[in-house]
Write a structure and sequence with these properties.
By secondary structure, the chain is an alpha/beta fold. It folds into three domains: 98 residues, 3-Layer(aba) Sandwich (Cobalt-precorrin-4 Transmethylase, domain 1), CATH 3.40.1010.20; 83 residues, Rossmann fold; 91 residues, 4-hydroxy-3-methylbut-2-enyl diphosphate reductase, catalytic domain (Cobalt-precorrin-4 Transmethylase, domain 1, 3-Layer(aba) Sandwich). 40% of the residues lie in helices and 18% in strands. The protein contains nine helices and twelve strands. Strand 10, helix 8 and strand 11 form a beta-alpha-beta unit. Helix 4 packs parallel to helix 5 and helix 7 packs parallel to helix 8. The longest helix has 16 residues. The N and C termini lie close together (8 Å).
Length: 283
Protein backbone atom coordinates (compact mmCIF):
# COMPACT_ATOMS: atom_id res chain seq x y z
CA UNK A 1 0.00 0.00 0.00
CA UNK A 2 1.25 3.46 -0.89
CA UNK A 3 1.36 5.62 2.20
CA UNK A 4 -0.66 8.85 2.07
CA UNK A 5 1.03 12.23 1.94
CA UNK A 6 1.02 14.01 5.31
CA UNK A 7 1.22 17.79 5.25
CA UNK A 8 1.43 20.15 8.21
CA UNK A 9 -0.16 23.59 7.81
CA UNK A 10 2.26 26.38 6.96
CA UNK A 11 1.33 28.11 10.22
CA UNK A 12 0.48 25.82 13.13
CA UNK A 13 1.21 25.25 16.78
CA UNK A 14 2.46 27.29 19.71
CA UNK A 15 2.47 31.05 19.22
CA UNK A 16 4.83 33.65 20.69
CA UNK A 17 2.61 34.36 23.70
CA UNK A 18 2.42 30.67 24.65
CA UNK A 19 6.16 30.08 24.19
CA UNK A 20 6.88 33.18 26.29
CA UNK A 21 4.55 32.02 29.09
CA UNK A 22 6.11 28.54 29.16
CA UNK A 23 9.63 29.94 29.31
CA UNK A 24 8.67 32.29 32.14
CA UNK A 25 7.01 29.65 34.29
CA UNK A 26 9.73 27.04 33.77
CA UNK A 27 12.42 29.57 34.70
CA UNK A 28 10.40 30.55 37.77
CA UNK A 29 10.12 26.90 38.79
CA UNK A 30 13.91 26.57 38.76
CA UNK A 31 14.58 29.95 40.38
CA UNK A 32 12.05 29.58 43.19
CA UNK A 33 12.56 25.91 43.94
CA UNK A 34 9.12 24.75 42.91
CA UNK A 35 7.20 27.19 45.12
CA UNK A 36 5.23 28.38 42.10
CA UNK A 37 1.57 28.19 41.12
CA UNK A 38 -0.31 29.45 38.07
CA UNK A 39 -3.59 31.28 38.52
CA UNK A 40 -5.69 28.93 36.44
CA UNK A 41 -4.18 26.71 33.71
CA UNK A 42 -1.23 28.56 32.17
CA UNK A 43 -2.45 27.65 28.67
CA UNK A 44 -5.36 25.60 27.32
CA UNK A 45 -3.38 22.42 26.83
CA UNK A 46 -4.05 19.63 29.37
CA UNK A 47 -0.85 17.74 28.54
CA UNK A 48 1.35 20.78 29.10
CA UNK A 49 -0.45 21.61 32.35
CA UNK A 50 0.13 18.01 33.51
CA UNK A 51 3.82 18.22 32.61
CA UNK A 52 4.15 21.43 34.62
CA UNK A 53 2.49 19.76 37.61
CA UNK A 54 5.02 16.93 37.37
CA UNK A 55 7.70 19.61 37.67
CA UNK A 56 6.01 20.93 40.80
CA UNK A 57 4.23 23.88 39.20
CA UNK A 58 0.62 23.46 40.23
CA UNK A 59 -2.60 25.26 39.34
CA UNK A 60 -4.49 27.43 41.82
CA UNK A 61 -8.09 27.90 40.74
CA UNK A 62 -8.32 31.15 42.72
CA UNK A 63 -5.72 33.53 44.08
CA UNK A 64 -7.00 33.01 47.63
CA UNK A 65 -6.27 29.28 47.27
CA UNK A 66 -2.66 29.81 46.22
CA UNK A 67 -0.20 28.41 48.77
CA UNK A 68 3.01 29.02 46.81
CA UNK A 69 5.16 32.12 47.32
CA UNK A 70 5.11 32.92 43.62
CA UNK A 71 1.98 33.11 41.50
CA UNK A 72 1.97 33.34 37.72
CA UNK A 73 -0.72 35.17 35.77
CA UNK A 74 -1.85 32.85 32.98
CA UNK A 75 -1.30 33.70 29.31
CA UNK A 76 -4.98 34.73 29.00
CA UNK A 77 -4.52 37.43 31.64
CA UNK A 78 -6.66 38.23 34.68
CA UNK A 79 -8.66 41.16 36.00
CA UNK A 80 -6.58 43.84 37.82
CA UNK A 81 -8.20 43.04 41.16
CA UNK A 82 -6.75 39.51 41.02
CA UNK A 83 -3.22 40.92 40.86
CA UNK A 84 -4.07 43.41 43.60
CA UNK A 85 -5.32 40.59 45.81
CA UNK A 86 -2.14 38.60 45.19
CA UNK A 87 -0.06 41.56 46.38
CA UNK A 88 -2.29 41.87 49.45
CA UNK A 89 -1.47 38.22 50.19
CA UNK A 90 2.23 39.16 49.86
CA UNK A 91 2.75 36.95 46.83
CA UNK A 92 5.41 37.56 44.22
CA UNK A 93 3.50 38.01 40.96
CA UNK A 94 4.91 37.03 37.56
CA UNK A 95 2.80 38.27 34.68
CA UNK A 96 2.79 35.79 31.77
CA UNK A 97 -0.14 37.51 30.03
CA UNK A 98 0.35 37.42 26.27
CA UNK A 99 1.39 40.92 25.08
CA UNK A 100 -1.34 40.78 22.43
CA UNK A 101 -3.95 40.09 25.12
CA UNK A 102 -2.58 43.06 27.05
CA UNK A 103 -3.42 45.25 24.05
CA UNK A 104 -7.06 44.17 24.31
CA UNK A 105 -7.10 45.08 28.02
CA UNK A 106 -5.54 48.49 27.40
CA UNK A 107 -7.89 49.26 24.51
CA UNK A 108 -11.01 48.32 26.50
CA UNK A 109 -9.90 50.41 29.47
CA UNK A 110 -9.12 53.39 27.22
CA UNK A 111 -12.49 53.22 25.47
CA UNK A 112 -14.42 53.04 28.75
CA UNK A 113 -12.46 55.98 30.16
CA UNK A 114 -13.30 57.96 27.01
CA UNK A 115 -17.01 57.42 27.56
CA UNK A 116 -17.65 54.71 24.98
CA UNK A 117 -20.00 51.79 25.51
CA UNK A 118 -17.48 48.95 25.23
CA UNK A 119 -18.41 45.85 23.27
CA UNK A 120 -16.07 42.87 23.46
CA UNK A 121 -16.42 40.56 20.48
CA UNK A 122 -15.70 37.19 22.04
CA UNK A 123 -16.87 34.26 24.12
CA UNK A 124 -18.56 35.09 27.42
CA UNK A 125 -16.81 33.35 30.30
CA UNK A 126 -13.54 32.81 28.46
CA UNK A 127 -10.57 33.74 30.72
CA UNK A 128 -9.24 36.29 28.23
CA UNK A 129 -12.63 37.96 27.95
CA UNK A 130 -13.06 37.99 31.72
CA UNK A 131 -9.67 39.68 32.04
CA UNK A 132 -10.76 42.28 29.49
CA UNK A 133 -13.99 42.93 31.37
CA UNK A 134 -11.94 43.37 34.52
CA UNK A 135 -10.28 46.35 32.81
CA UNK A 136 -13.61 47.71 31.52
CA UNK A 137 -16.26 46.58 34.04
CA UNK A 138 -19.24 47.90 32.09
CA UNK A 139 -18.23 46.11 28.87
CA UNK A 140 -20.78 43.95 27.06
CA UNK A 141 -19.67 40.65 25.54
CA UNK A 142 -21.11 39.76 22.12
CA UNK A 143 -20.29 36.50 20.40
CA UNK A 144 -22.40 36.82 17.26
CA UNK A 145 -24.50 39.36 15.34
CA UNK A 146 -27.65 37.74 16.77
CA UNK A 147 -26.57 38.60 20.31
CA UNK A 148 -26.54 42.31 19.45
CA UNK A 149 -30.34 42.21 19.43
CA UNK A 150 -30.28 42.02 23.23
CA UNK A 151 -27.93 44.99 23.64
CA UNK A 152 -29.30 48.49 24.17
CA UNK A 153 -26.80 50.50 22.18
CA UNK A 154 -25.61 53.92 23.27
CA UNK A 155 -24.62 56.84 21.07
CA UNK A 156 -20.87 56.13 21.27
CA UNK A 157 -19.71 52.51 20.92
CA UNK A 158 -16.18 51.17 21.09
CA UNK A 159 -15.27 47.63 20.01
CA UNK A 160 -12.39 45.36 21.01
CA UNK A 161 -11.93 41.75 20.02
CA UNK A 162 -10.84 38.56 21.76
CA UNK A 163 -7.49 37.71 20.16
CA UNK A 164 -8.67 34.32 18.88
CA UNK A 165 -11.80 35.53 17.09
CA UNK A 166 -12.14 35.29 13.32
CA UNK A 167 -12.08 38.32 11.05
CA UNK A 168 -15.36 37.15 9.51
CA UNK A 169 -17.19 37.23 12.84
CA UNK A 170 -15.81 40.67 13.67
CA UNK A 171 -16.89 42.03 10.29
CA UNK A 172 -20.37 40.55 10.67
CA UNK A 173 -20.85 42.24 14.04
CA UNK A 174 -19.46 45.56 12.81
CA UNK A 175 -21.85 45.46 9.85
CA UNK A 176 -24.74 45.19 12.29
CA UNK A 177 -23.47 48.15 14.30
CA UNK A 178 -22.99 50.48 11.36
CA UNK A 179 -25.89 52.91 11.05
CA UNK A 180 -27.19 52.11 14.54
CA UNK A 181 -24.78 54.31 16.51
CA UNK A 182 -23.54 57.86 16.02
CA UNK A 183 -19.91 57.08 16.70
CA UNK A 184 -18.17 53.73 16.29
CA UNK A 185 -14.54 53.20 17.25
CA UNK A 186 -12.91 49.82 16.62
CA UNK A 187 -9.69 48.29 17.88
CA UNK A 188 -9.06 45.16 15.80
CA UNK A 189 -7.15 43.22 18.44
CA UNK A 190 -7.28 39.83 16.71
CA UNK A 191 -3.80 38.32 17.03
CA UNK A 192 -1.86 38.08 13.76
CA UNK A 193 -0.83 34.53 14.67
CA UNK A 194 -4.50 33.59 14.97
CA UNK A 195 -5.32 34.98 11.53
CA UNK A 196 -2.29 33.29 9.98
CA UNK A 197 -3.19 29.91 11.48
CA UNK A 198 -6.79 30.20 10.38
CA UNK A 199 -5.80 31.11 6.81
CA UNK A 200 -3.27 28.25 6.64
CA UNK A 201 -5.82 25.79 8.04
CA UNK A 202 -8.43 26.87 5.49
CA UNK A 203 -5.95 26.47 2.65
CA UNK A 204 -4.73 23.04 3.72
CA UNK A 205 -8.13 21.59 4.61
CA UNK A 206 -9.44 22.54 1.17
CA UNK A 207 -6.74 20.33 -0.42
CA UNK A 208 -6.81 17.16 1.71
CA UNK A 209 -9.21 14.30 2.28
CA UNK A 210 -8.51 13.96 6.01
CA UNK A 211 -7.74 16.81 8.43
CA UNK A 212 -6.45 16.46 11.99
CA UNK A 213 -6.63 19.44 14.35
CA UNK A 214 -4.50 19.16 17.52
CA UNK A 215 -5.15 21.10 20.70
CA UNK A 216 -7.11 21.39 23.93
CA UNK A 217 -10.86 20.99 23.61
CA UNK A 218 -11.36 24.06 25.78
CA UNK A 219 -8.99 26.08 23.61
CA UNK A 220 -10.98 28.74 21.76
CA UNK A 221 -8.49 29.15 18.93
CA UNK A 222 -8.18 25.38 18.39
CA UNK A 223 -11.94 24.94 18.34
CA UNK A 224 -12.16 27.68 15.73
CA UNK A 225 -9.50 25.97 13.63
CA UNK A 226 -11.55 22.76 13.77
CA UNK A 227 -14.66 24.66 12.63
CA UNK A 228 -12.78 26.24 9.73
CA UNK A 229 -11.30 22.90 8.66
CA UNK A 230 -14.66 21.11 8.91
CA UNK A 231 -16.16 23.68 6.54
CA UNK A 232 -13.64 22.61 3.89
CA UNK A 233 -13.08 18.94 4.74
CA UNK A 234 -15.87 16.74 6.07
CA UNK A 235 -13.34 14.22 7.43
CA UNK A 236 -11.99 16.64 10.06
CA UNK A 237 -11.16 15.48 13.60
CA UNK A 238 -10.17 17.52 16.67
CA UNK A 239 -7.89 15.60 19.05
CA UNK A 240 -5.75 16.37 22.08
CA UNK A 241 -3.31 13.44 21.87
CA UNK A 242 -2.22 10.62 19.52
CA UNK A 243 -4.13 7.89 21.36
CA UNK A 244 -7.39 9.45 20.14
CA UNK A 245 -6.58 8.73 16.50
CA UNK A 246 -8.92 6.23 14.81
CA UNK A 247 -7.46 4.11 11.96
CA UNK A 248 -10.80 4.27 10.12
CA UNK A 249 -10.24 8.01 9.53
CA UNK A 250 -7.35 7.19 7.21
CA UNK A 251 -8.67 4.06 5.47
CA UNK A 252 -9.02 5.75 2.08
CA UNK A 253 -6.82 8.79 2.68
CA UNK A 254 -4.31 9.89 0.08
CA UNK A 255 -3.54 13.33 1.48
CA UNK A 256 -3.70 14.03 5.23
CA UNK A 257 -3.46 17.49 6.72
CA UNK A 258 -2.43 18.47 10.24
CA UNK A 259 -2.83 21.77 12.03
CA UNK A 260 -2.63 22.73 15.68
CA UNK A 261 -3.84 25.43 18.00
CA UNK A 262 -1.66 28.20 19.41
CA UNK A 263 -1.24 26.30 22.70
CA UNK A 264 0.17 23.17 21.05
CA UNK A 265 3.96 22.70 21.28
CA UNK A 266 5.89 21.31 18.31
CA UNK A 267 6.63 18.00 20.06
CA UNK A 268 2.91 17.24 20.30
CA UNK A 269 2.47 17.86 16.56
CA UNK A 270 5.41 15.57 15.82
CA UNK A 271 3.97 12.84 18.08
CA UNK A 272 0.65 12.93 16.22
CA UNK A 273 2.37 12.87 12.84
CA UNK A 274 4.41 9.83 13.86
CA UNK A 275 1.30 8.07 15.17
CA UNK A 276 -0.54 8.69 11.88
CA UNK A 277 2.38 7.23 9.90
CA UNK A 278 2.36 4.15 12.15
CA UNK A 279 -1.40 3.67 11.74
CA UNK A 280 -1.23 4.02 7.98
CA UNK A 281 1.59 1.50 7.75
CA UNK A 282 -0.63 -1.08 9.43
CA UNK A 283 -3.82 -0.48 7.45
Amino acid sequence: MTLPTIEIAAQAGACYGVERALQMVKKAGVTHGGSVQTLGPLIHNPQVVQELEQDGIRVASHVDEATANVVVVRSHGVAPEVVQRAHELQKTVLDATCPYVKKVHYAAKFLEEQGYQVIVVGEAGHPEVEGTRGNAPSAVVVGSPEQLKDVKLRRKVGVVVQTTQSKANLQAILSCLLGKVEELRVFDTICAATSERQAAAADLSSRVDTMIVIGGRISANTTRLAEICAAHCSNTHHIEKPTELDPSWFATSKHIGITAGASTPANQIQAVQAAIVNLCEHL
